[in-house]
Task: structure prediction
Amino acid sequence: MEDTEKFASLQGSSRESVQQFENRKQDHIRLALDDSNEALGLGGFDRLQLRHEALPELDFAEIEIKSEALGLSVATPLMVSSMTAGHPDGVDLNRRLALACEERGWLMGVGSQRRQLTDGEAATEWQTIRRQAPRVRLLGNLGLSQLIRTPLTQVQRLVDSLEATAMIIHTNPLQECLQPEGTPQFKGGIAALTELAAHLPVPVILKETGCGFSSATLSRLNELGVAAVDVSGFGGTHWGRIEGGRSSEGSPKSLAAQAFRNWGISTVDSLAAALSASTHFEVWASGGVRSGLDVAKALAMGAQVVGLAKPILVAALAGEAELRLTMERFEFELKTAMFCTGCSTVAELSNKGIWAWVNK
Ligand SMILES: Cc1cc2nc3c(=O)[nH]c(=O)nc-3n(C[C@H](O)[C@H](O)[C@H](O)COP(=O)(O)O)c2cc1C
Result:
């Protein structure tokens, strides 16, 4: 069977209408903005402190936040985490994000490109955005439960449509269980990831979506060939809570969402586990990162890139000026943490051993 034919038949049973897809994406944005769907304060950043340096011998103006990720030189170690793609309201949001990321040198993860798998038109969004932001570094995105059913040629098309720097595969077992139209089928996931990492010409990144990774899971990832793992731990946007809010009240899924409202491994615990497990992949941090000081703490622990979703969503919806202000704020707070720890570069911040657990 031709690759595309096989793909169409594999996707057939789970194909959903464009309308259903758009409704789900809009629900996600609406519910992500509700603070009760965040596990705020539980990401563990308060359990870490950086060592204050009273005599930094530095000029703040010379603090340098350029860094490296996936073997590339990047202007900042910051990333807009994957959020939105493939629905009409998303186009404006993504254009705004892409322009701001290009201007400030942040990486930009795009939201799940699942819709592009069955709707070729959805890719045109990116052609327009690419023309306007030709230098932004975009990271593609697809769920593991879709990857298992998607041939490599189709994933390659997703990468090509963005001219992506890398491809993110997200794993989200809790979300797939609780989502009214979820597909909790992850059998074959490790084989699919290994195959993708071996054949896709761009780096493959594995990320969670807010529930983090355990040491046991991380210890299985070195052999997969993924270039980076973004821990996306518990402590920020919580997809169990969000999907619970989409289920009809009193239904098993909505009740389960209550029981699982604090499910997940905190961002800092996931990060610590990833850093000790990793021999072959970069470790990226996200999940509940809410200040440039959180960014500095994650970098000091050894994260290569630090991502934010909700704070950027809120700012981008408020307009271009607010988005730039928020990005500037994160950079300024990161530089302030660097100045006050006597670190003039990100490399120094990561290598100086200036962090400690306050209360593990
Ligand atoms: C509105 C919204 C949509 C999201 N969609 C995706 C997605 O399509 N793919 C993905 O990997 N993660 C998605 N995420 C998860 C984020 O990338 C991130 O892992 C998670 O929200 C934790 O980060 P935060 O606490 O900074 O929000 C989404 C997050 C938000 C807020």
